[in-house]
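Milestone M4 deliverable, item 7.
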Amino acid sequence: MDSLTSPETWIALLTLTVLEIVLGIDNIVFISILAGKLPAGVQRRARTVGLTLAMVTRILLLLSLTGIMRFTRPLFTTFGHAFSGRDVILLLGGLFLLWKSTREIHDKLEGEQGRRNVKAGATFASVIVQIALLDIVFSLDSVITAVGMARQVGVMVAAIVIAVLVMLVAAGAISDFIHRHPTLQMLALSFLLLIGVTLIADGLGQHVSKGYVYFAMGFSVFVESLNLRLARTAPPVHLKAPITR
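Output delivered:
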């Protein structure tokens, strides 16, 4: 009970909540891109399920602290670098993001408008599976940050729940804004490419500061917002999209 009245507890909760939201930005972008492939009627449900899965994944990892610590223990050594379970997960997640974002960019720029393609016309289940797999990758850094920032599991869980609730409120507006502006769709996919590269680098032991990544993303959004203001009267570029049921 004393911990609830402790200023340190509330400061840790506030700081960790903000960090969880920042670390969840890339997750929101990925979920928005995938949900945008679904019919309009189920996009909101896909975002809600995706972020709920992210919250559940983070909490389960938090409650398995010993398992998280085992992720950082070396499993094997190749070319002088000791790979841990975390490294392998980051590598696989980064490669998946590179493949997924590259394919999305190709489909939107070079694909056939309105083609009926089973692979292109994503189903709700396939989108949720992809979101769930990437949630594991995105959750690792989030949970490890939480463990390093706070001592009480209750504070960590509360911060994660609050952060996901904030993201649930903002996800719809962010997704609608991205899909309303085609150039922002390309920018968001480019962010996913960048995040994929940083995940691979991190998995190979070459840590890239998140500060540099988020600064690059923020500056790109700022420049694009200026372009949108200048080109407000011009018709937007039309990106190709498959027919979805």
